[in-house]
Amino acid sequence: QVQLVESGGGVVQPGRSLRLSCAASGFSFSKYGMHWVRQAPGKGLEWVAVIYNDGNNEYYADSVKGRFTISRDNSKNTIHLQMNSLRAEDTAVYYCARDRTNGGNVHDDWGQGTLVTVSS
Amino acid sequence: DIQMTQSPSTLSASIGDRVTITCRASQSISTWLAWYQQKPGKSPKLLIYEASSLQSGVPSRFSGSGSGTEFTLTISSLQPDDVASYYCQQYNRLWTFGQGTKVEIK
Predict the structure, then answer these.
(1) Which of A2, A99, B24, B62 is the most buried if burial means most Cβ atoms within 10 Å?
(2) Which residues of A touch B55 (CB under 8 A)?
């Protein structure tokens, strides 16, 4: 079955960088788009970024554009989220989610999430 | 940007009740609307996509309807296992979630 396992979360100071990873298994990874979605403590869901199956298209929420970069390695069934210039408002659980198609659809499977805390 | 507004924010109902949650888009999104369920401490789960298509494995008491800017999620007979927060999401232009509706048992 589909398995998505996030890693890389932790405590980081404002202005610093962090790189999240998501390891996928149980499906043909190169056929599916992949997303990052976050949830601040006690708050709702916020879509962050998407990368299409071939890695040639990526889109970002305005709140992270220019600071975050999504990437994928289809040979390793892995996606990453490089987060630079982190702010307190980036504190959240970050979920990796599979797109239902190659990248422009809904999130039909989710990982368990990894917590990022931005604090001095 | 497309904004999504859900109502109510919190809903309390009895077991067996019919429950309806409404989601409104700030502009027309055709039927590019999904619904997710998130139980406390868990990851979200896809319930409905394309406004009314039931995701595989989701109980048939869940249904979705609507198009354009007005959408509804209906639980035909509320069960204890349905205690959760529910989120709508548009995917017509990028992706935007509603603020969520918390469903409780009365």
Answers:
(1) A99
(2) 108
Per the listing, tokens 């990796």 go with A96
Q: Other CB atoms closer than 10 Å to residue A88's CB: what's the count?
A: 10
pLDDT digits (tens, 9 = 90+) for B42-95: 999 999 999 999 999 999 999 999 999 999 999 999 999 999 999 999 999 999
Chain B residues with CB under 8 Å of a chain A CB are: 1, 34, 36, 38, 43-46, 49, 55, 85, 87, 89, 91, 94-100
Q: What is the DSSP code string of A1-43?
A: --EEEEE--EEE-TT--EEEEEEEESS-GGGS-EEEEEE-TTS
- CA–CA separation, A52 vs B25, rounded Å? 25
Is A100's Cβ below 8 Å from some Cβ in B? yes
HSE-CB for A45 with a 13 A CA cutoff: 33
- Residue range B6-27, pLDDT digits in tens: 999 999 999 999 999 999 999 9
The pLDDT score that the predictor gives to residue B51 is 98
